[in-house]
Write a structure and sequence with these properties.
- The structure holds three protein chains of three kinds.
- The two termini of chain A are about 25 Å apart.
- In chain A, α2 runs parallel beside α7 and α11 packs parallel to α13.
- By secondary structure, chain A is mainly alpha-helical.
- Chain A has 14 helices and no strands.
- Chain B is mostly helical.
- Chain B has eleven helices and two strands; from the N terminus they run αααββαααααααα.
- In chain B, α1 packs across α7.
- By secondary structure, chain C is of the alpha/beta class.
- Helix content of chain C is about 35%, strand content about 25%.
- Chain C contains nine helices and ten strands.
- In chain C, strands 6-7-8-3-9-10 form a six-stranded mixed sheet, with helices on both faces.
- In chain C, α3 runs parallel beside α5.
- The longest helix of chain C has 14 residues.
- Chain C starts with a strand and ends with a helix.
- The model of chain C has no long low-confidence stretch (mean pLDDT about 90).
- The chains are: A mainly alpha, B mainly alpha, C alpha/beta.
- Chains A and B meet through α5, α6, α11 and α13 of A and α3, α9 and α11 of B.
């Protein structure tokens, strides 16, 4: 019921709000997919990843390079970007999943740094610090409103697919490996494979967000592959509350709004991001969504 | 110590910048390094004592907090010292190239190597051969048991953390003549630290030393041959080692 | 053909030999009890059989096919199941969800990433399994809310759900009241004969009448093995237990 109301509100938005808000909401959509894909690993899989921007950025770069260097149209570039990213994610997963917990985190970070550094240094391919520009959107949805509806449709589909994954038998098994990995092995589940499949699936949706990203901005820069970018996604999940479906969405909205508001008043987004991290971990470790739920239940029981 | 600490690169950079300012008053590089190291150690003290200690065992929390602190430090440095790279001058007596065995070496870089070896050996002796080191290792292996035997684990951990911060800060100054102080130095140093620890193995000083050696060698030669793929080459040894040995070369356990 | 065959199994932790060349054979359908004082290596032995630990040397076979190098989940697919001394189930999930996860481990459904898990066919099967242990009335209750004795029965139900050929029970009676112990003992006695049962128990008195053959472990080695009366009469058994 709540989802229906939200969807109706989102569909109505472009008719009620100005272009700035339409664009802002489009950006929130893109970031929500990214955050939700991180949450598959972190919240449902118990695998903290600090390198997810790799997949978002890689898909964006492949799409951009396919268009600029090979002249491919979007219907060819998009699948190529998704496939390429998934293959790289499969390989990265093989390496990162040699460890769990802290080791896994460091490996995901290291692997994404490889892509980031390569994007910077391989100037002949990526034009390094200049980024790639002059890109186009598919279906020529250059206006704010047409792009908004495109993004909304992709977002609804992506989130729905991720929700189905989480509610499926494989999703139940994934949650089991998060809670009691050894027990799951003893029950016959192939814990490593469950994690690896989830890793690739999460990377796929990260790639989808990357495509939307590069379509929206018509530009891609190595910073989208950076640690900072992964950290922003992680912050969205933590702020919203991991392990819930709505958490990353709320978190994405919070982080995106904060970023937009902050950049108007404060030059140093990074420092603010840093303070927010410290604040959240120390004061609201379970995230905003569970925290609010807790307060709401307490309020209702009093009334 | 099994703390997920992503601040280390930023501490290195902070040391470098502090060194720049200290050098304006105190022209001796080594003294500046010591002072910068001490200042960064103080910062590390507050970080460990008041924030990290509360997050024992919460890996994700430690990661986020140290990441956040590194962002804060990076932006603070940007505000205080500006966005342009600031070179740190090489000490006069080490500016001449050295002739050894018919080959020419930049003297300062040799000096850095010597210092690194001394530091590594010193750390090794401290951790493996002294009573203090034994207490630290006991605290890492089994915190509750060590406490039960009367070892002040929390105080020791804080000390070790400060020592690490001091080394990072001093390292930033010592590395100054080679690297300068610039925004983004922390982002350049952090992956190196990560690689060395993962490659060498968590909990092993020898691993860190060997890991640094291998990484340095492979990187320097690789970059000369394939400069575009510098970053891939940097991480390649680590990736290869992990693929075959999840605990790294000398690690005590898989990270 | 032995249901479970262990040959010269060795495992050391650092310098400490935990299992010191243990060999034993359990016949199909047998009820075997492994006893020994604390630290004898009983749970370590179980961990080696299930694959939670890798042996330094020696071999483990299930119905004549060697499983020494297999990963844990692969051994489960060969018919091995186990309960744990410390309850490691999923406390926030309902009993039927817990059992359904156990059923899922061996089901083809486990790679389905699209259809809904809650309330699917496995849940109906889970209720049937819960009937076997007399807990079907608590199926929809979260595990954290049931009593310790009931949790122990869920442990056994989890293992039975795997339709095992060889079932390892690690101290199934630990921490139970006398009444609960009676229920669980009856439950174990009712396990069909096509399942071979190997049990670890610390409390000799309660466990003795559940076993056909007994293996006594001490400091990682087998010191006595035989039928109930043989083991009870053997002077080494008394030494091991009375000496402590």
């Amino acid at each position: 019921m709540r989802w229906g109301v939200l969807l109706a509100a989102l569909v109505a938005l472009p008719f009620l709000a100005g272009e700035y808000y339409i664009n802002l909401t489009s950006q929130i959509f893109i970031f929500a997919i990214f955050a939700a894909s991180i949450n598959l690993l972190l919240g449902y899989g118990g695998l903290p990843t600090l390198g997810h921007s790799a997949y978002m950025g890689l898909a964006a770069y492949i799409s951009a390079l396919a268009a600029l260097k090979l002249g491919w149209p979007h219907w060819a570039a998009a699948p190529a970007a998704l496939l390429g990213t998934v293959l790289v994610a499969g390989a990265f997963g093989l390496i990162a999943l040699r460890a769990t917990g802290l080791g896994f985190l460091m490996l995901t970070l290291a692997l994404s740094q490889v892509l980031w550094g390569t994007a910077y240094r391989w100037v002949s391919m990526t034009d390094g610090d200049n980024g790639l520009r002059g890109l186009s959107r598919p279906f020529q949805i250059d206006g704010a409103t047409p792009f908004y509806f495109f993004a909304l449709a992709v977002t609804v589909f992506s989130l729905w697919m991720m929700a189905r994954y989480v509610g499926s038998p494989l999703g139940a098994a994934l949650k089991g490996t998060r809670d009691q990995a050894r027990r799951m092995s003893a029950l016959g589940h192939d814990v490593w494979l469950i994690r690896w499949v989830t890793f690739v699936y999460a990377a796929f949706w990260g790639a989808v967000s990357g495509l939307l990203f590069v379509y929206y901005h018509k530009y891609i820069h190595p910073i989208s592959l950076s640690l900072q970018s992964s950290a922003e996604g992680l912050l969205a999940v933590i702020a919203g509350g991991s392990g819930t479906l709505a958490g990353p969405l709320v978190g994405a909205a919070i982080v995106m709004l904060l970023k937009n508001w902050a950049s108007a008043y404060i030059e140093r987004w990074n420092m603010l991001l840093g303070f927010v991290f410290v604040f959240i971990v120390v004061f609201m470790p379970e995230g905003v969504v569970p925290g609010v739920k807790r307060l709401w239940l307490r309020f209702r029981s009093r009334a | 110590m099994r703390i997920a600490n992503l601040t280390h690169g930023a501490l290195f950079m902070l040391g470098a910048y502090l060194g720049v300012s200290i050098l304006k008053r105190v022209p001796d590089l080594w003294l500046a390094a010591a002072l910068a190291g001490a200042a960064v150690a103080v910062f590390g003290f507050f970080l460990e004592r008041f924030i990290l200690r509360k997050l024992g065992g919460n890996v994700l929390g430690q990661v986020l907090v140290t990441l956040g602190v590194s962002f804060i430090i990076a932006d603070l440095c940007l505000i205080v010292w500006g966005g342009d790279p600031i070179p740190i001058p090489t000490p006069g007596w080490l500016q001449q190239p050295l002739r050894l065995f018919g080959l020419v070496f930049p003297a300062y870089r040799l000096a850095v190597v010597v210092i690194a070896v001394i530091a590594a050996v010193g750390l090794y002796v401290l951790i493996e051969r002294t009573r203090l080191g034994a207490m630290i290792r006991a605290g890492v292996d089994d915190m509750d048991m060590a406490r039960a035997v009367g070892i002040p684990v929390s105080r020791l951990f804080t000390t070790v953390f400060c020592l690490g911060a001091a080394l990072a800060g001093a390292g930033g100054v010592i590395g100054g003549p080679i690297m300068s102080a610039y925004p983004g130095l922390d982002a350049d140093m952090l992956p190196l630290a990560l690689i060395v620890v993962i490659l060498g193995g968590v909990g092993s000083l020898l691993g860190a030393f060997v890991g640094a050696f291998i990484t340095g060698f492979v990187y320097t030669f690789g970059v000369a041959l394939l400069p575009d793929l510098a970053y891939v080459i940097l991480f390649l040894p680590m990736i290869l080692v992990i693929a075959f040995r999840p605990r790294g070369l000398f690690g005590k356990f898989a990270a | 053909m032995a249901a479970l065959q262990i040959k010269s199994l060795k495992k050391a932790f650092g310098g400490l030999p935990a299992i010191n060349g243990v060999s034993l054979e359990v016949a199909p359908g047998e009820r075997r009890l492994i006893i020994g004082p604390n630290g004898a290596g009983k749970t370590t032995l179980f961990n080696l059989v299930t694959g939670d630990l890798r042996a330094d040397s020696g071999s483990i076979s299930l119905f004549d096919s060697e499983i020494t190098k297999f990963s844990t989940h692969r051994r489960v697919h060969r018919g091995l199941a186990r309960t744990y001394q410390i309850i490691t189930l999923f406390p926030h999930d309902t009993l039927e969800h817990n059992i359904a996860l156990s059923l899922l481990g061996l089901s083809r459904l486990r790679w389905d990433f699209f259809s809904s898990f809650e309330g699917n066919s496995l849940y109906a099967d889970a209720t049937e399994i819960l009937k076997l242990v007399g807990l079907e009335h608590l199926a929809a209750r979260p595990l954290a809310e049931v009593s310790y004795g009931e949790k122990r029965r869920v442990e056994i139900a989890m293992a039975l759900a795997q339709k095992p050929k060889v079932l390892l029970l690690d101290e199934p009676l630990a921490g139970l009241s006398r009444e609960e112990r009676g229920t669980v003992k009856a439950l174990i006695a009712s396990i069909p004969r096509d399942v071979t049962v190997v049990m670890i128990e610390h409390d000799m008195d309660t466990a003795l009448d559940m076993a056909e053959r007994i293996t006594v472990l001490h400091y990682g080695s087998v010191i006595v093995e035989g039928t109930r009366s043989e083991v009870v009469a053997d002077p080494k058994t008394k030494e091991v237990y009375l000496g402590h």
